């Protein structure tokens, strides 16, 4: 059915081979090279740091090899996501959204790992639907907000949009994966604000959230460790071996890096495993320790560069859907960078949020690159002549 | 609900670039600009934080990282051994299985303590106290329990995860192969107290160290302990050693070669013990019950060198009870007055009136003062009533009839010495010549001998000034009476001496007036047996007494063990021709208690090799309780085989 409708608009492409058709639709001259280079740099530094963090494990290149494979897969996904007119997603938004909710429900069928239903095993790769749910929620919200003329100031529309975010959020919260649930909430708030919501609405939402959290604690819906994690960053120095231990070790690692770092492979906090989960949530601590202020600031600079290019594309997009999609991705990346690095620096709670492009993990890396692909897509097609006709 | 919006499947190709109205577009741009500002501000915040942590406080964090990574472990230096004069081991070391904790690494302390308490069977409170006591800036293990079983060590090692910061390993501890032998001389170890730590500052002592608390372990602690080594390793987060960074080997302590002879020591201890158990069976008609004989001491001293060949104190204790820290119960028992304080070394700590053994001093003093000659005749009719003593008569233990000073020593006649005392009193009144207490001081009484053992007492030589001062404080009579001088002449009253001091007095007499410092250390030696420091004889005082007077007195002392002598019965059957023995009995009365039995002697009398001093508290008369002990010792030392029972002598 889809091909039929496409054929209607592009009769001249029927007899062409698939690669040539693909290239024709790919207006490469408008690709944002700075954006591409910044994410490539981040990913490559990430792969090196993952090796630094895990080379003591056996086999020493296990994580390195896997992340390399994920990286190549992620690049493919990025190209795929950039390879068609992004507006073609709009009619399928609802379908993708419902399918993703189904996937999230499906995780509960798979056996729990360390007490959480986050993963679905697909052969050697454990797929994490909550990662893709972030992107899908952004797509759904962008579709919805664009559909309603960027006017979220209307309370009914605002609540509908909230509903769109809330369903995957609750499912992910129940997995439980507090970090991603909070990410989706923040993505919603940011997109709603850019999409015309008033601060008053957000304030009411904030109050309602606090009330819900308090009620959650009272009714013991929030797990003990989640609450502890959220509170612990305040008192990390008092309780070095309790819940604040990770945080303190991370701060020691980063601090001890000083200006030039302790040198690649030389970080004692990393090599002697004082930093917990050093290849996933605490990868920034490894950067801080081994590459010092120079390295950590470079990472932040690259993220700044990325967000700046994303903002440029968001504001230059030819339609509201494109703007909202880009906005959602910006907020997602920004929130993850802020909370993750802030956590390793001891100024944000330990919420279990990964650092995009750097943390080890296939789902996160692939979804991040898919996001980049989609935004490149928006940026490539902001001129009418680039749109296929 | 339709999942696919068919109306949007078609893409308008010729849409305007900015299809939005300008106003709406402006609004959107403004919102994105606000978002950009928020993002920029956050990045500035992150960079500032990064700057403060890495550039401003970087060194501090680096120190913490090094502290994380580097674990300093003290390598305990093996303590020196203690050997007898022939090189036989009296104290050595062995490795004991021990459970220790490093408090900084325990993590969940409460939980670990709880598990340890169950495993070791010690109270949680006690564990916490031990940890608290040793929690010091020097990260080191606190030993909770030594000599644990192999199973406990294995259990902890297999469950190391549950016992974070707990070390199951070995620790060198003292071993005493002979248990009680020479316990007072050797001394026990214990944990250093904060006061001792302050006192020994700068000498490498650390909190939680073991330190010698008595005997040579205490006097020579700094020699024995050696120097602690240092071992620095890199550890990972679970505390496993990754590699060694630095190592300074410990230097083991010096060994002590004592003057003590293991065989002589055993002999003296056995003799003393036997003597005391015999005394306890003897009936005291004056008190109407058996002698208490609660404790005693015996010393064998080489008069020429001052070397202590044996030094026994009864009751004794088992040194092995102190290994790895003495239990509360055992400690309480050792300090219970009922048990006569076995920790005390009575040879240097018991202050007793010397009784008649002091008469050697009185006699020489009287000769020097010209009060009497050796052959000046006296008459003993059992009671002394001269001058003021008409109203307060003093009695002799026997009736000696006509007697001179020379025989007064042999037969220990009190009347002779009351008379001498009275003469001293008269001269003292006229402030003529030297008072009797000055002579006592010249015999080095009233102050410690300076032996290399801790806790030695001074004894007491009373003087009118002392009496005044002492009794003003204690509410007694401050006046010095003739009785005070007369009592002192027979070694009674306020005069107090230690068994070692008495041995030194007799050693000086046989040494022609020279006082050689008594000592128990012969030399210190290193691992290979090389002598490091040798103790040379130290003459610390000399008597100004004519040689012939000393010689006459020595002849008199030889008479004590034969004929009419006060110890004659005891030495019946002893080969005195081959090994002439000279000595003096003593019986010092303490009101309301059994008398203290004394016997101080030396042999062979011509060229003495040994001076022996025996004192048994509440043991009865010197001749009956102390002299037999001395004979047993002599028999052992000279390897004399005699048959039959050693008889008590009736003499005082």
| Tally of DSSP helical segments of chain A | 15
Write down the domain tally of chain A: 1
CATH superfamily placement of the largest domain in chain B: DD-peptidase/beta-lactamase superfamily
Please report the number of helical segments of chain B.
21
User: Fraction of residues of chain B in helices?
Assistant: 25-40%
The share of residues in extended strands of chain A comes to: under 5%
- What general outline of chain B do the C-alpha atoms trace? elongated
What do the pLDDT scores of chain B average to? 89
Spatial extent as radius of gyration of chain A:
21 Å
CATH topology of the largest domain in chain B: Beta-lactamase
**SS content category of chain B:** alpha+beta
- Largest interface by Cβ-Cβ < 8 Å: A-B, 69 and 59 residues
Give the DSSP E fraction of chain B (strand runs of 2 or more residues).
15-25%
Return the structural class of chain A.
Answer: mainly alpha
**Rg of chain B, please?**
38 Å
Quaternary structure? heterodimer
The gross shape of chain A turns out to be globular
Strand order of the largest sheet of chain A: 1-2
Based on the structure given, which CATH architecture of the largest domain in chain B is correct? 3-Layer(aba) Sandwich
What does this structure look like?
The complex is a heterodimer of chains A (389) and B (652). Chain A has helices at 2-9, 18-24, 33-54, 62-82, 93-107, 129-147, 155-174, 178-194, 199-218, 224-232, 245-257, 268-271, 283-316, 320-344, 362-380; strands at 120-122, 125-127. Chain A is mostly helical and 389 residues long. Chain A is globular. Chain B folds into 2 domains: 71-258, Penicillin-binding protein 2a (Domain 2) (Alpha-Beta Complex), CATH 3.90.1310; 262-335 and 343-637, Beta-lactamase. Chain B contains 21 helices and 25 strands. In chain B, the strands form 8 sheets. In chain B, strands 2, 3, 4, 5, 10, 20 and 21 form a 7-stranded mixed beta sheet that branches. A 5-stranded antiparallel beta sheet of chain B has the order 14-13-25-24-23, with helices on both faces. The chains are: A mainly alpha (389), B alpha+beta (652).
């Amino acid at each position: 059915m889809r091909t039929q409708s496409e054929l209607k608009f592009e009769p001249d492409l029927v007899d062409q081979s698939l690669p040539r058709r693909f290239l024709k639709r790919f207006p490469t001259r408008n690709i944002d090279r700075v954006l591409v280079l910044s994410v490539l740099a981040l990913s490559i530094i990430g792969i090196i740091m993952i090796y630094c963090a895990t080379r003591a494990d056996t086999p020493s290149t296990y994580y390195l090899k896997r992340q390399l494979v994920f990286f190549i897969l992620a690049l493919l996904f990025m190209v795929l996501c950039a390879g068609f007119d992004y507006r073609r997603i709009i009619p399928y938004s609802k379908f993708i959204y419902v399918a993703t909710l189904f996937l999230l429900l499906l995780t509960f069928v798979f056996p729990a790992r360390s007490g959480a239903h986050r993963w679905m095993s697909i052969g050697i790769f454990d797929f994490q639907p909550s990662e893709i749910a972030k992107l899908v929620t952004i797509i759904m919200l962008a579709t919805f907000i664009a559909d309603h003329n960027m006017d979220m100031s209307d309370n009914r529309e605002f609540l509908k949009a909230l509903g769109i975010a809330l369903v995957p959020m609750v499912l992910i919260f129940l997995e439980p994966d507090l970090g991603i649930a909070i990410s989706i909430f923040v993505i919603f708030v940011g997109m709603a604000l850019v999409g015309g919501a008033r601060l008053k609405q957000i304030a009411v939402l904030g109050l309602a959230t606090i009330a819900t959290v308090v009620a959650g604690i009272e009714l013991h819906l929030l797990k003990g460790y989640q609450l502890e994690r959220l509170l612990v960053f305040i008192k990390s120095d008092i309780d070095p071996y309790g819940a604040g231990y990770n945080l303190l070790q991370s701060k020691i690692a980063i601090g001890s890096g000083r200006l030039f770092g302790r040198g690649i492979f030389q970080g004692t906090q990393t090599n002697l495993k004082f930093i917990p989960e050093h290849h996933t949530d605490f990868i920034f601590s490894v950067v801080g320790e081994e590459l010092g202020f120079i390295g950590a600031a470079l990472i932040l600079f690259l993220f700044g560069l990325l967000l700046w290019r994303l903002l440029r594309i968001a504001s230059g997009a030819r339609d509201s859907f494109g703007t909202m999609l880009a906005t959602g991705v910006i907020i997602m990346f920004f929130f993850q960078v802020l909370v993750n690095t802030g956590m390793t620096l001891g100024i944000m709670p330990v919420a279990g949020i990964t650092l995009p492009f750097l943390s080890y993990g296939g789902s996160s890396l692939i979804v991040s690159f898919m996001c980049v692909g989609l935004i490149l897509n928006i940026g490539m097609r902001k001129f009418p002549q680039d749109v296929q006709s | 609900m339709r999942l696919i919006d068919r109306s949007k499947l078609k893409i308008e190709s010729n849409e305007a670039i900015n299809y939005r109205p300008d106003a709406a577009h402006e609004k959107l741009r403004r919102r994105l600009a606000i978002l950009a500002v928020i993002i920029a501000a956050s990045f500035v915040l992150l960079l500032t934080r990064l700057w403060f942590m890495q550039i401003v406080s970087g060194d501090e964090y680096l120190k913490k990282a090094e502290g994380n990574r580097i674990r300093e472990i003290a390598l305990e230096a093996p303590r020196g051994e203690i050997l007898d004069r022939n090189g036989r081991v009296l104290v050595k070391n062995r490795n004991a299985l021990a459970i220790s904790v490093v408090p900084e690494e325990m993590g969940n302390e409460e939980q670990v303590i709880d598990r340890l308490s169950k495993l070791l069977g010690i109270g949680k409170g006690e564990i916490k106290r031990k940890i608290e006591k040793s929690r010091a800036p020097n990260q080191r293990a606190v030993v909770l329990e030594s000599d644990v079983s192999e199973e406990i060590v294995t259990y902890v090692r297999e469950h190391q995860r549950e016992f974070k910061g707990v070390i199951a390993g070995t620790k060198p501890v003292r071993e005493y192969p002979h248990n009680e032998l020479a316990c007072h001389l050797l001394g026990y170890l214990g944990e250093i107290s904060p006061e001792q730590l302050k006192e020994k500052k700068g000498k490498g002592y650390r909190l939680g160290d073991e330190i010698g608390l008595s005997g040579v372990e205490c006097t020579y602690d700094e020699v024995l302990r050696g120097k602690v080594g240092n071992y620095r390793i890199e550890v990972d987060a679970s505390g496993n050693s990754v590699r060694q960074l630095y190592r300074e080997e410990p230097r083991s302590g010096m060994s002590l070669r004592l003057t003590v002879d293991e065989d002589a020591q055993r002999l003296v201890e056995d003799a003393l013990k036997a003597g005391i158990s015999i005394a306890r069976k003897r009936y005291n008609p004056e008190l109407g019950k058996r002698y208490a004989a609660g404790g005693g001491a015996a010393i064998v001293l080489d008069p020429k060198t001052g070397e202590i060949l044996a030094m026994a104190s009864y009751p004794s204790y088992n040194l092995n009870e102190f290994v790895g820290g003495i239990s509360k119960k055992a400690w309480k028992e050792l300090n219970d007055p009922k048990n006569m304080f076995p920790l005390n070394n009575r040879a240097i700590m018991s202050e007793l009136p010397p009784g008649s053994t002091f008469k050697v001093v009185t006699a020489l003093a009287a000769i020097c003062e010209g009060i009497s000659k050796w052959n000046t005749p006296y008459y003993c009719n059992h009671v002394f009533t001269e001058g003021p003593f008409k109203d307060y008569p003093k009695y002799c233990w026997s009736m000696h009839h006509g007697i001179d000073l020379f025989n007064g020593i042999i037969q220990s006649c009190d009347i002779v010495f009351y008379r001498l005392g009275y003469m001293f009193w008269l001269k003292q009144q006229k402030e003529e010549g030297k008072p009797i207490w000055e002579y006592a001081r010249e015999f080095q009484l009233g102050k410690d001998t300076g032996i290399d053992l801790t806790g030695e007492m001074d004894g007491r030589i009373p003087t009118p000034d002392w009496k005044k001062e002492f009794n003003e404080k204690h509410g007694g009579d401050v006046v010095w009476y003739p009785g005070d001088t007369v009592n002192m002449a027979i070694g009674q009253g306020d005069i107090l001496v230690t068994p070692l001091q008495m041995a030194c007095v007799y050693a000086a007499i046989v040494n022609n007036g020279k006082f050689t410092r008594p000592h128990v250390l012969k030399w210190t030696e290193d691992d290979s047996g090389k002598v490091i420091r040798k103790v040379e004889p130290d003459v610390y005082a000399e008597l100004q007494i004519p040689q012939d007077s000393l010689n006459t007195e020595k002849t008199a002392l030889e008479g004590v063990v034969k004929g009419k002598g006060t110890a004659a019965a005891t030495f019946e059957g002893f080969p005195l021709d081959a090994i002439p023995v000279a000595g003096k009995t003593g019986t010092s009365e303490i009101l309301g208690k059994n008398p203290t039995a004394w016997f101080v002697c030396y042999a062979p009398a011509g060229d003495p090799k040994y001076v022996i001093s025996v004192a048994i508290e509440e043991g009865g008369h010197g001749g009956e309780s102390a002299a037999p002990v001395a004979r047993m010792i002599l028999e052992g030392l000279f390897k004399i085989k005699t048959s039959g029972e050693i008889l008590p002598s009736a003499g005082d």
